[in-house]
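Predicting structure from sequence has reshaped protein science. With that in mind, we have picked out one protein's residues alongside their backbone shape tokens:
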Amino acid sequence: MVGQWRGILRQALIVIGAVVAYFGVRGLTEGSAEVAVRHAWVVVQWEKDLGLYVEKDMAKPFEASSVLATAANWVYIWGHWPAIAATMLWTCVRHRASFLRLRDAMIVSGALGMTIFVTYPVAPPRLAGLRFVDTVTERSSAYRVLQPPSFVNQYAAMPSLHAGWDLLVGIALVTAASSLLLRVVGLVMPALMAVAVVVTANHFVLDVIVGVGLALAGHLAALVLERRRRAVRPADDVRVRSRTG
């Protein structure tokens, strides 16, 4: 039992260290607001060329309904870090393999995301002068308290790791849970987050697509690391048996 809790503490320290590094790099490398806004307009043009510029149409029902706006805000605020923390804790205690895949996938995709944050800062729709309504700031103070603008890089909209990491959490829930309810949550939550980040004016559709792509790349890397761990473990077991025999 003591050994199990030591393992959990060790994994918690790894995750906390990765999170601190993520926010530290993201916060300290905030790009020029002018450059980030210019890049946001470039993203808009890309979306128009691809037929993806649908953010304003998506946001209209949420701007007109306080109920829908509040629901989107709650998904955006409470469906990200609180959901990630709860899922990581649960899988670390009950489903170690799923936890390690989730941990590794988040670290890899987070590193890739930070590279983009540094090299290509993009303003979110709410800060790009495009007349989007920032429903989170207007109708909820919780998120700006959880992540104060002075602490994070507001010009790191590309990619949307809100959407990408929620997909990884969903994969972990679907693969680890025996409960139908948790599996349904794992299936639905990433889709709800993908919508919420757009209608709250925090991300463009293209940000979501890139975020999901990086998350899947991270998941693939995590599967490769898992195979390597499984390949190393039998060799370690053989060495232990030879020493004790």
Remarks:
- Residues 205-244 form the longest helix (40 residues).
- The two ends are 27 Å apart (CA to CA).
- The mean pLDDT is 82.
- The CA atoms of residues 40 and 122 lie 5 Å apart.
